[in-house]
# Entry
Amino acid sequence: MTRAAETPPSPPKTRCPLPETRCMTTPEHSSMTTETTTETTTEMTTEMTTDTSQLINVLRAKPLSEVQALVDGAVKSLVARLFQVSFLQVTRDTALSSYGLDSMRAMELRNLIYAELGVELPAALLLSGATLGELAGEVIRQIHAEPEAPEEQDAPAAPSASVSPAPAPEQRLALSFGQERLWFLHQLDPASTAYNLAGAALVTGPVSAEAVERGIAEVVRRHESMRTVFGDAGGAPYRRVLPAMAIPVPVVDLTGLPEAEQDSRLRERVAAEERQPFDLTHGPLLRLALVELGGERRALVLGIHHLIADGASLALLMRELGLLLAGRAHELPALPARYSDYVAWQRSVAGGPRHERSLRYWLDQLGGELPVLELPADRPRPPVERADGIARSIRLPDELGRGLRALAAHHQTTLFTVLLSAFEVLLHRYSRQTDLVIGTPVAGRGRLELESVIGFFADTLVLRADLSG
# Structure
């Protein structure tokens, strides 16, 4: 689930007739908010703040015995900021899992610590039930560690802090590794629309198609992925970032129809977006339509290709468009990086020690013949893989949810790990297999600079489970 980066205070609730879509509302005139979580965001009050931006230089100049309190305060400040609790509530000996740490927040905390302190904490440490004191200890250890020999050093662990110049329109740029994967799959089946993302959002307020066009034009200007097209030179894919790209916003009028019929037509429109191919060579790889429902009720139907966006990108797009429609463009921060910076960073890491260590690990984990899950299904597995499928969502009772969180806290792990373990046991009971391979999506935004950039960062992480006992 994508957690909203920001939630305006007390937005009015609206009904979303479309399953698996994001709803937007307009609490002030034409402003919109994306409801991607039921969590309530409250303003954090911190009784004590610590200046951590220059802390790394200070710490390196001090002896080890003098820095523990300073590092503790800095890490406590970051933990309080992330979990939106009082600084005084954060204690040195309490496991971070007790504050509700999950895998996504663990990566957010890792990014914050790297951005503020220049120290890259191991993800395994954050997810092992570590306490604040243990995190601070690892920060101090890395600060005072002997520098690695040049041949042992990794490539930079993050994109450059400075934004690279905009590429020329005729320049042929490398794809990210994730984009290369999607491009390869597209070559296997050019007619496939499996990587089309589509959805609808309800909008209330005085919103016109012209205003949406102006707003989306600014989003396209800010994010190079939104004006990127793809080509092929002798079998090698490349991308080009165009200086501009117009996104028309046609209007569909459903005002004369009953509400139930409007809902049905909206579903049909979203389904049509999912089935309509994109021209990857000429673009645009984004389509929008404004559906009039009557009065100040409207729906914005969106279709976008996965090559230029992922789930987190859709939330960013809707948030930025909402601010622009509300006349709050001044609240949009300058982007700290381009998608091209991310691609350059990926390429710089490839072949280095970090990459080689990861490659050895995954070859060990996934080498040889992988098991195929054999469930007692009522239909045979098709001879050719298809993209057909369906998603089912369930809501667990509150009491069960509290019990699961308590179980995770007791074992100093995350709720995701508890639910994954239960899922693996369920698959084992149905299949009687002890070697299971499960895929789970990951955000892939490993740095703070990338959290506000629209683009394709998501990936699928392969988890191999051994239930042999």
